[in-house]
């Protein structure tokens, strides 16, 4: 017998409600990932959805809710560990909420390019925009569309009219300095990242603050660009000063510094203590496992998405900063008490 698609009756929300023994409104709440549903009821509804093969009409939902269920993400397109992990964390967190991430990556790390990317996403009708860009100077012209669309920035200095979710740079750096000073080092030198990055200035400020609070001298900063090669080159310059302790702005540059130490026959940690930042997966597998700072990037990105979704749902006006999340110093084998 020939069956036409028009004759096939697809399951409806009412059918799901009848099967689960709940009201259709409850099914709607579950489908829309609303929070005011108990776990047991949510499980019962999801079971009924699976048994019936019910598929929500997303187009109708979007028209009714005036939402696209798409979240825009503007991110620096870089293979560096920090930016790539931030982008991954944001996309996974958006998908966790049953939403679709729409990503635009920037190449030049240019405020004008970031501005254009945000504008394009807003023109596409996204419900909100997450901006994961490292540059400091992100001053945008007043734009009525920006005022009407929720925007949350991650890691960089906050956009006007947006909330900021930051990783625990200050907390992590203070732990580094306190650890090294507790090992009798008179001061801590710093090998910093790229000069125009928010993460660079934040690390420098926290490092300087921690040293000044302890009454220690603040040595001149040596800059790299986050890569192992720059850590090596800048490390050769820094090691000429004969420091006993160095805080490196990320693990990749710390690896470059360790190579420079090896070539200059400077023993780590006997002659020099080294601490990185990021806790790369390979940090613990180096010949001398690296002491470094671990930040839960996935958790921070999930909180950024949560902040944005609160604004999307109710467009609440949030303050521009949120409490910093704790970082953890992972003490391994590249730090030791200063030799006398």
Write structural notes for this entry.
With 340 residues, this protein is of the alpha/beta class. The chain has 3 domains: 5-56, 434 Repressor (Amino-terminal Domain), CATH 1.10.260; 68-167 and 297-325, Response regulator (Rossmann fold, 3-Layer(aba) Sandwich); 169-295, Response regulator (Rossmann fold, 3-Layer(aba) Sandwich). Helix content is 43%, strand content 13%. It has 12 helices and 11 strands. The protein has helices at 13-20, 24-31, 39-52, 58-65, 81-96, 111-123, 144-148, 169-182, 198-213, 228-239, 251-263, 297-314, and strands at 70-76, 100-106, 128-132, 151-154, 163-165, 189-192, 222-223, 245-248, 273-275, 292-294, 328-330. The protein has a 5-stranded parallel beta sheet, with helices on both faces. A 4-stranded parallel beta sheet has the order 7-6-8-9, with helices on both faces. α9 (198-213) links the parallel β6 and β7. α1 (13-20) crosses α3 (39-52) and α8 packs across α9 (198-213). The longest helix is centred in the C-terminal third of the chain and has 18 residues, at 297-314. 39% of the residues are buried. Keywords: DNA-binding, Transcription, Transcription regulation. This is LacI family transcriptional regulator. It comes from Microbacterium sorbitolivorans. GO terms for molecular function: DNA-binding transcription factor activity; transcription cis-regulatory region binding.
